[in-house]
Each structure stands twice: as structure tokens, then as C-alpha cells.
Write a structure and sequence with these properties.
The chain is mainly beta. It contains 3 helices and 9 strands. It starts with about 25 loop residues before the first strand and ends in a 7-residue tail after the last helix. Bound molecules: S-adenosylmethionine.
Length: about 170
């Protein structure tokens, strides 16, 4: 079996990149987490869900002062031109990636940054059932109250059990 593409490896050498977007997705507009992406069909583990281009912001960009926009950015390793030194910048995701909500224990989508092609590749971490929300992990420091918090506080065993099944890739 061939391994799933987790980077934008399908890029050709002529300055083009094949984009991929899994088709059977829907954007629910009124979940407890705001808008959220759900699948209308089963998705097999390893399926590429989306390849989203990113926009790297300059550290002094005024856009970063907007908390609202900041919540849609990811840390991005940036190689400084002259020195080649890698520093962290913020990048806005210009694709479906901006719509994935966070889940601590039930994340089912992983992502891989591709700094050379300026894209993020989102991939199913496990088999996903029709009707499930597609969630990633934002990490442990959230800037908002997790809408799932009560669920896991009331049943910590559920969280432990689920966490042991998830492969974190970022
Ligand atoms: C990248 S956006 C995701 C899309 C967003 N739900 C929307 O409607 O545009 C990140 C924002 O979604 C919300 N969000 C994501 N995961 C959440 C969670 N687990 N609990 C509550 N809010 C969440 C927060 O408001 C967060 O700042």
C-alpha cells in the first residue's frame, strides 16, 4: 500500500502545485464553536482533506494587532533571507484550514506545514464517520473557552481513552 501524501509532494517542478480538496464536506454555521467543517461521507485514514495556501505576515504587520484575525493564524517557521536563520512568524491560512475548530481529545485531522511551497496539507488522522466534525489540535494554550470542556470534565475517562488512540503529528 502506498503511504498517504502528507506534504505537498505532488508539486510538479514547473512552478505549479496541484491543489486537493475533499469534496463531501459541509460548513455548519451555528455550532457551539462557531462555524465548523463536517463530513457528509465516511473518510478513510490518510485522505488529504485540503491543501491550503498561507500568507506569511511581517512581524510588524498591523493585521496582527487584530485579535480576531490573530485567531486565524498559525505559527510559521520562516527562513530569514540573508542569514538563513529560522524565526517564527504568523501565517494566515487562505483556505478551508481556517475553518477547522479545535478538539483536545477528538481531533481527527492532522496538518503538515510545507514552508517551501507555502501551503498546509490537512490529512485524516483516522477513519472518520459521516456526520463527524473535522477538528484539529490548536495545542494546549487556547485563547478562548473550549466548548468541549464540560464534556471532558464530566467524563475524564472518555478523554484519556480517546487521547490514547490519536496520533499527533504537529
Ligand atoms: C480558526 S477559527 C475556526 C473557525 C471558527 N469557528 C469560525 O466560525 O470562523 C478559530 C476560532 O474558532 C473558535 N473555536 C475553535 N475551536 C473551538 C473550541 N474547541 N471551543 C470553542 N471555540 C472554538 C474560537 O472562536 C477560535 O478563535
Amino acid at each position: 500500500m502506498t503511504s498517504p501524501a502528507t506534504t505537498a509532494e505532488s508539486a510538479s517542478n514547473d512552478g505549479q502545485l496541484s491543489l486537493k480538496r475533499f469534496s463531501n464536506l459541509t460548513l455548519k454555521l451555528d455550532t457551539p464553536k462557531g462555524r465548523g467543517v463536517f463530513s457528509t461521507v465516511d473518510i478513510a485514514r490518510g485522505t488529504v482533506i485540503d491543501i491550503s495556501p498561507v500568507l506569511i505576515l511581517e512581524p510588524e504587520d498591523k493585521a496582527l494587532e487584530s485579535k480576531q484575525l490573530y485567531n486565524y493564524t498559525y505559527n510559521w517557521p520562516y527562513s530569514e533571507g540573508e542569514t538563513g536563520k529560522t524565526t517564527m512568524r504568523q501565517a494566515v491560512i487562505l483556505g478551508l484550514g481556517s475553518m477547522f475548530n479545535h478538539s483536545n481529545f477528538a481531533q481527527n485531522v492532522g496538518f503538515t506545514r510545507d514552508p517551501s511551497k507555502l501551503v498546509i496539507v490537512y490529512t485524516a488522522l483516522r477513519d472518520i464517520k459521516a456526520g463527524e466534525e473535522l477538528c484539529i489540535s490548536y495545542g494546549s494554550r487556547l485563547a478562548f473557552r473550549d466548548a468541549d470542556e464540560d464534556k471532558y470534565l464530566s467524563d475524564p475517562e472518555e478523554g484519556n481513552d480517546l487521547l490514547s488512540k490519536i496520533e499527533l503529528d504537529d
